[in-house]
Design goal:
By secondary structure, this protein is mainly α. Helix 4 runs antiparallel to helix 5.
Length: 274
């Protein structure tokens, strides 16, 4: 089963590569590489900027272990230099004392004074003085080599101190620069976000203004319609044109319609006149 899947995958990959070669020819690898780069760049563009800022801050924070290691190396190198400086000073002081003792013995051989330094009035033979002088000189030579080695180490440690200090200063300066730039980017992002938020508020205010204007227009339109209806009722008149037939006796029709209401009034009026 697994072998079959692997075989199918290999065959699929081969067919895909063959199809690309048929379509693009020798430029197929270039097209594939360009497409891969574009997909990768598009994927990066989809990452939110605040996330990238936080990731950059984390990368800057990850510099701290390297900075601490460099600080420790610098401290060790400075301590080594101080100790070597003390050792070299002590060796030189002892060598100066040994040198003075050898010169004194050498002078004693010239004058015939065969006494060793620090041995009081004890006298020695010339050969004993020479043997002691040879021993002192050989020891002086060995100490001189040790001094030269320590001086070489001292110079190397001094170079390390300078290199570590320079590297530390560079790292701290770069960290500060990166942090400052990142702070500037974040500040600009906040300004952009504030500007976009302000635009949203302005758009909302504009929409609200349009809604208020529409409602106001409707209110005015209704008011005009109401006022128009009132004016039409006031100024149009209520008389309805009526055509009266030539032979029609309207007075008789009215008297007949309203006889019960007008007759008493007429009789009363007639009685008074009599």
């Amino acid at each position: 089963m697994a072998c079959s899947l692997i075989k199918k995958s290999v065959i699929g990959a081969a067919l895909g590569a063959g199809a690309l070669f048929l379509v693009f020819g020798a430029h197929a690898p270039s097209y594939v590489k360009t497409a891969f780069r574009k997909v990768r760049n598009d994927a990066r563009d989809l990452v939110p900027l605040p996330f990238d800022i936080e990731r950059a801050r984390q990368e800057i924070a990850d510099l701290e272990p390297a900075i601490r290691d460099n600080i420790e190396r610098l401290a060790r190198a400075e301590v080594d230099v101080e100790h070597l400086d003390g050792e070299i000073a002590a060796i030189r002081k002892n060598m100066d004392a040994d040198k003075q003792a050898m010169l004194t013995l050498r002078e004693g051989l010239k004058t015939g004074e065969y006494r060793l330094a620090g041995h009081g009035r004890v006298a020695y033979t010339e050969d004993e003085i020479k043997d002691d002088l040879a021993r002192r000189y050989d020891s002086y030579g060995n100490v001189k080599k040790i001094l030269e080695a320590k001086e070489s180490t001292y110079k190397a440690k001094q170079s390390e101190v300078v290199a570590f200090r320079k590297q530390l200063d560079t790292m701290m300066a770069q960290k500060k620069t990166l942090t400052t730039k990142l702070d500037e980017i974040e500040a600009r992002l906040r300004q952009i976000e504030a500007a976009e938020a302000s635009k949203d508020v302005q758009l909302d205010g504009s929409a609200l203004a349009h809604a208020k204007q529409t409602v106001g227009d409707l209110e005015r339109k209704l008011e005009v319609m109401t006022r128009k209806a009132e004016m039409e009722g006031r100024y149009a008149g209520n008389d309805v044109p009526v055509e009266v037939a030539p032979n029609r006796d309207v007075i008789q029709e009215i008297d007949a319609e309203f006889a019960t209401e007008t007759t008493p009034a007429v009789e009363k009026t007639a009685g008074k006149s009599l």
